[in-house]
Amino acid sequence: MLNRFIRRNIFTYTMPFYAVAKGKNPGVYLTWAECQANVNGFSGAKFKKFPDRLAASDFVKKFGSGTSTEDSVKEERVDKENDILSTSQRKNGPSKRKGDAKPNFNQFKKSKNDDKKSDYPEGKSDKDADYEPYNTLKETEDGYLLKKDGETYVVYTDGACPGNQNKKGLRFSGSGVWWGPAKADSIPNDRFENEYSTNNFGEARAILAAVKHAKEKGFKKIEVRTDSKFCISALDVWIIKWKRFAKDGKWTKYDKSPIIHQEIFQKIDDIRRNFVDIEFRHVKGHNGELGNEKADKLAVKAAEEHKKLYKIYMEEFSKDM
């Protein structure tokens, strides 16, 4: 069973795939040059680089016309150094010529190292040529931040958890959301269990608060700027596989342990699919960009408030004993 799964996804984890959801010819491409040729000069182009074909195909179906892109991948032979079978070999089976080396399927197995920071999929960031820094953004009459296209609102989000690596003592976390002069939210965690009080939880809850507000305001398109590569990767890439291979509605990791952020990510994904066009942009933390600094301060303030709430909770609890 495992070998059949690996064979079926033989390109996974070996080479980049460029998904063009909105462009001259939407589809999945194997080279950046092909992708670039299909998005340059196209107004409102939407494209992204992925580490595997499945995620790229789902991205096109999600943000494009909704049609399958399985046949849109250019039929090319991968470099021999990658030790991957060509398209004809995938269809007709590997060559039986004497001396042909057997493909090493073990290299495609998912391991615990896949979740390391160095393995985060490449996405849009503040290093891209099309990035609009804070000081170039427009400001609406009511104080919201707007990109040059006049339709994309910008929001900065951040999470904070002092002592995030503390495995034994109590941890306190919070979230910060900054829309510009119009709105600033400092949101303490509403739970006290340590497993739900982490930096990643603070980041995820900040994004959820932002997209909920966008829905309430009727914003059609927003750009969420966050320094959390974890959340961007989870919501842009990993979520596709989590949902596809869920059992009884439960998402799990490679080791079958649960995705503890599932409830938050599901709510964000629902709003993204049905109400607001959401694009994530990674910004480097503590790099001097005003929006990120504002969100960070709001998150730190929220973490401090979370600690105060815990003390009040314990005092009330002791009175009832």
UniProtKB/TrEMBL annotation:
Transmembrane segments: none annotated. The keyword Nucleotide-binding does not apply. It catalyses: Endonucleolytic cleavage to 5'-phosphomonoester. Keywords: Endonuclease, Hydrolase, Magnesium, Metal-binding, Nuclease. SUPFAM superfamilies: L9 N-domain-like, Ribonuclease H-like. The lineage of its organism: Eukaryota, Metazoa, Chordata, Tunicata, Appendicularia. Its cofactor is Mg(2+). PROSITE patterns: RNASE_H_1. Belongs to the RNase H family. It holds the Pfam family RNase_H. Endonuclease that specifically degrades the RNA of RNA-DNA hybrids. It comes from the Eukaryota. Residues 65-133 are annotated as: Disordered. Its EC number is 3.1.26.4. It comes from Oikopleura dioica (Tunicate). Residues 71-83, 111-130 have a biased composition (Basic and acidic residues). It is an enzyme of class 3 (hydrolase). Residues 149-304 form the RNase H type-1 domain. This is Ribonuclease H1. InterPro entries: Ribosomal_bL9/RNase_H1_N, RNase_H, RNase_H1_euk, RNase_H1_N, RNase_H1_N_sf, RNaseH-like_sf, RNaseH_domain, RNaseH_sf.
